[in-house]
Amino acid sequence: MKFFIDTANIDEIKEAAELGILDGVTTNPTLLSREKGKGDFKEILKKICDIAQGPVSAEVVGEDADTMVREGKKLAALGEHIVIKIPFVKEGFKAVGRLSREGIRTHATLIFSPNQALLAAKAGATFISPFVGRLDDATHYGMDLISQIVQIYDNYDFVTEVMVSSVRNPLHVLEAALIGADIVTVPLKVIEQMIKHPLTDVGVKKFMDDWKKLGAEI
Ligand code: E4P
């Protein structure tokens, strides 16, 4: 399972890279807006690429396919790691197909139904982002969507990778792993929550106390 970090914050991305599990980075307009005042967004994306050395999703904001394709090409020119993230509305669907056919990697986002995922795969998307947290927020069990998409992609051997997105807690990651999703994109906070277990902390304290009693050095 690949782990992407869902942020445009350089410090957080560096920290995830130091943990040694960083396979890629996802950004979106909201995440980039949180970095306002820290430099030009294109420079931020280039820095992210340097640190990640893997796929970095950058999102278009155009409202028609021509604009999305134009923006996608500009963003793709920033570096070889950039993947073009496109909201899966009708114009976005067209843009995913057009960029994919030109060999530019695409990431269909704001996926909330299995049929959107099916069409994104047909259009040649490299990644799709079904948003589990936002579905949970709306009282729909988000993980049901992941199960259905994984089954559909398995049925037809689609190569599009399922990136579980809008992840809010470690249970989302666990369920994604049990289903067999290809990727999770997670906030740093969730990775930190996954590392931590109170019984590990209690165990470490006991070992340290007992080691002190021994009075030895390694
Ligand atoms: C990732 O690609 C998405 O942009 C992100 O996971 C959305 O998360 P949110 O629902 O917490 O904003």
Describe, in plain words, how this protein is organized in 3D.
This protein is an alpha/beta fold. The chain has one domain (2-214): Aldolase class I (TIM Barrel), CATH 3.20.20.70. The chain is built from eleven helices and eight strands. The chain has helices at 10-19, 29-33, 41-52, 65-76, 90-101, 114-122, 132-137, 142-156, 170-179, 188-195, 198-214, and strands at 2-6, 24-26, 56-59, 82-87, 106-111, 127-130, 161-164, 183-186. It has an eight-stranded parallel barrel with strand order 1-2-3-4-5-6-7-8, surrounded by seven helices. β3 (56-59), α4 (65-76) and β4 (82-87) form a beta-alpha-beta unit. α1 runs parallel beside α3 and α4 (65-76) crosses α5. The longest helix is centred in the last third of the chain and has 17 residues, at 198-214. It starts with a strand and ends with a helix. It binds erythose-4-phosphate. Erythose-4-phosphate (E4P) binds next to α7.
Percent helix range: 40-55%
Largest sheet: 8 strands, parallel, barrel
Work out the strand percent. Answer: 15-25%
Largest sheet, spatial ordering of strands: 1-2-3-4-5-6-7-8
Q: What integer is the average pLDDT? A: 98
Q: Quickly give the CATH architecture.
A: Alpha-Beta Barrel
Global shape: globular
CATH superfamily: Aldolase class I
Keywords:
single chain; 218 residues; alpha/beta; TIM Barrel; eight-stranded parallel barrel; 11 helices; 8 strands; 17% strand; globular; binds erythose-4-phosphate
